[in-house]
């Protein structure tokens, strides 16, 4: 991705966040220059990859496959220094974009429509060998439990949420004509390196073409203290 595209996406998400009255932590607003003065007292941000994350899954088709997100808080399963057992994210998904089909080996999460359009979450159970199971999926949405056929898209309007359990395949996209969606995610600790099982093997972070200075640093770019 071009840095100019990443910068534009971040500014779009900042506008969407403001539109829906959500406030983010101060570190989400720091410039690259401000990061140079941040000492070891901010290592939780560095070590747990908090902050901005713009992903095209290495496919180079961000407007079709990918989204913008902020990790607001997260524990760390590989470092005993951090004892939080939970994580929280904020995501922006535009019409025409989708997140690829995947499940988590260990993480349970709630995906929440915080505002904007409607999001469609497609769900499957997984077989033991990682294929789609042709079995009904038990869905939990805001205190209601019900079953849907394999491959059903569960529609979440603003304020609604769905619980995603380990080994539950899911992808998501925006319902056409409803506009960009601000999603929340509340979950167990997030571990992108080890806990994602994509149905079709893909990457995670973009290769960046530095065509202009960074507006915000991504969570993989912080300078060491």
UniProtKB/TrEMBL annotation:
Its cofactor is Mn(2+). Gene3D superfamilies: Jelly Rolls (2.60.120.10). It is an enzyme of class 5 (isomerase). The keyword Transport applies. InterPro entries: D-lyxose_isomer, EcSI_cupin, RmlC-like_jellyroll. The keyword Manganese applies. Keywords: Carbohydrate metabolism, Isomerase, Manganese, Metal-binding, Sugar transport, Transport. It catalyses: D-lyxose = D-xylulose. GO terms for molecular function: D-lyxose ketol-isomerase activity; metal ion binding. Its EC number is 5.3.1.15. Belongs to the D-lyxose ketol-isomerase family. This is D-lyxose ketol-isomerase. It comes from Robinsoniella peoriensis.
